[in-house]
Design brief:
This protein is an alpha/beta fold and about 475 residues long. The chain is built from 15 helices and 25 strands. The longest helix is centred in the N-terminal third of the chain and has 22 residues, at about 95-115.
């Protein structure tokens, strides 16, 4: 059984108190590793290492940082299968998904930012012969990078890569549920030649290690991806320190289907956007709104396709959905399905736990489609974060916009229509950080990523990551 160590100053070290917590293989329902239960003292050591490294790293050339990041990407790629297996075992997702999406996107994060930083420009202006002014971007300092359990390596590297690229050092706190690939990444960083202290990894739980990072006086910026309730705690605890915050939080995303949609593309993508990664993606379209004239047909065909999805052994190439991340999370998901039934909802397919041969203790739930609920019901309002979607009919464009905006969240929504004018109108009226038209989860890393309302604050990606990890300084020089 594996035992992970903290990674501080390029060394693997035991937590100071020697305490560990178990982490489970969700498909088997069994402990498969032990993760450090780090405390504020461990965080202090990591922050001190990052602060020392910042002095030279922040002054290093972009070309140097770019070369190192490309080496990191190459080493992950060389060990792609090892990373994919570790991600699948740790998180419960199908191995095929980790192999085709999670790990390749982590690699792309490093490659994208490694080249992006080589082409930055700073604005200048002249004031009528009086002075010349120009802006410079300078890295902020030690960044706290706190990542979630659903897309562990992908979202951790989405933070590490721009932090490195723009000259910040970091202390990372991965989810205690899924620390495996973060631990593997530490060896890759060292093997690539990343200087000591540039990236540090402290494992543990949020109330201890996470909060110690949030309130640390030598950590001026925090990038967090996770639940809205935790984001609220971070926002409150960081406020007295006036730290820079990027909070990518929960979502209850609308998938809006108009009658003139491309039927096959819309239906196939809706199956994917509903149930990919067991529905454990903040971008999943868990609220499907379908124009009334095609509602019955859409529900019937969506249910038929969902019923054919294979729930089972994550290592089996035929598996479409693996296990949910924990026993507690499975209970939460099943609780919402029970609530839907209590509220008079109709379960068209799924609705129960699945027992998989050879994995009888695993946390498997069948893809579930629910109709007959009001858009204002709890099941349609609250984030379930599992393989559960509600389907609601609508009559008019104004009505569906009201439905889409009628939640406290505002992360990402999808619109399916062949009418270009309607696509523009609806996209502009929806209150969310992202709107996909006739597609889903297409990620252009040049574009801003983030939510509005209870889905968070701040934007990352391309120059927006530069805005976060750097401070701009205006320098004005008099002309004699």
């Amino acid at each position: 059984m594996s035992k992970f160590l903290n990674f501080i100053d390029n060394e693997f070290v035991e937590p100071l108190l020697g305490a560990y917590i178990p982490t489970f293989n969700p498909a088997k329902g069994e402990v498969h590793a032990h993760v450090p239960d780090s405390t504020s003292e461990d965080v202090d050591l990591a922050v001190a290492a990052a602060k020392r490294a910042f002095v030279t790293w922040s002054e290093s050339t972009r070309a140097y940082r770019s070369d190192l990041m490309r080496k990191v990407a190459d080493l992950i790629e060389a060990r792609l299968e090892d990373f994919a297996i570790a991600e699948s075992v740790d998180q419960g997702k199908p191995l095929s998904l980790a192999r085709s999406i999670d790990i390749p996107r982590a690699i792309h994060n490093f490659r994208f930012f490694s080249t992006y930083i080589l082409h930055l420009e700073n604005p200048t202006s002249d004031l009528d012969g009086v002075a010349t002014s120009f802006a410079v971007r300078q890295p902020v300092g030690v960044a706290a990078l706190i990542s979630p359990w659903n897309l562990p390596l992908y979202l951790l590297t989405w933070k590490i890569a721009p932090a490195m690229a723009y000259g910040c050092t970091s202390v990372c706190k991965p989810s205690e549920f899924t620390s495996n690939t973060a631990y593997l990444l530490c060896s890759v960083l060292r093997d690539a030649g990343v200087p000591k202290g540039v990236v540090n990894m402290v494992f543990g739980v949020g109330p201890k290690a996470g909060n110690a990072l949030v309130v640390h006086p030598d950590v001026p910026l925090i990038s967090f991806t996770g639940g809205t309730a935790t984001g609220e705690v971070i926002y409150r605890n960081a406020a007295p320190f006036f730290k820079k915050l990027s909070l990518e939080l929960g979502g209850k995303n609308a998938n809006i289907v108009f009658a003139d949609c491309d039927w096959e593309t819309t239906l196939a993508t809706s199956v994917r956007s509903s149930f990919l990664n067991q529905g454990e993606i903040c971008l999943c379209g868990s609220r499907i709104f379908v124009e009334e004239s095609i509602f019955d047909r859409f529900v019937a065909e969506l249910s038929e396709r969902a019923s054919k999805l294979v729930v089972g052994d994550p290592s089996d190439p035929k598996t479409d959905l693996g296990a949910l991340v924990s026993k507690e999370h499975m209970a939460k998901v099943l609780g919402y399905i029970k609530l839907a039934e209590d509220l008079g909802g109709n379960i068209h397919t799924g609705g129960q736990q699945v027992e998989v041969k050879g994995f009888e203790k695993g946390y498997f739930v069948r893809p579930t489609i629910i109709t007959g609920l009001a858009p204002t019901s709890r099941v349609c309002q609250e984030e379930i974060f599992g393989p559960v979607v509600t389907v609601v009919p609508f009559k008019t464009e104004d009505e569906v916009i009201e439905y889409a905006n009628g939640v406290k969240y505002g992360l990402a929504n999808s619109v399916w229509t062949q009418n270009l004018n309607r696509a523009h109108r609806v996209a502009r009226k929806i209150h969310s950080g992202i709107v996909w038209v006739n597609c889903w989860m297409v990620r252009d890393l040049n574009q801003p990523f983030g939510g509005v309302k209870a889905s968070g604050l701040g934007r990352e990606g391309g120059k927006y990551s530069s805005d976060f990890f750097c401070d701009e300084k205006s320098i004005c020089i008099a002309m004699g």
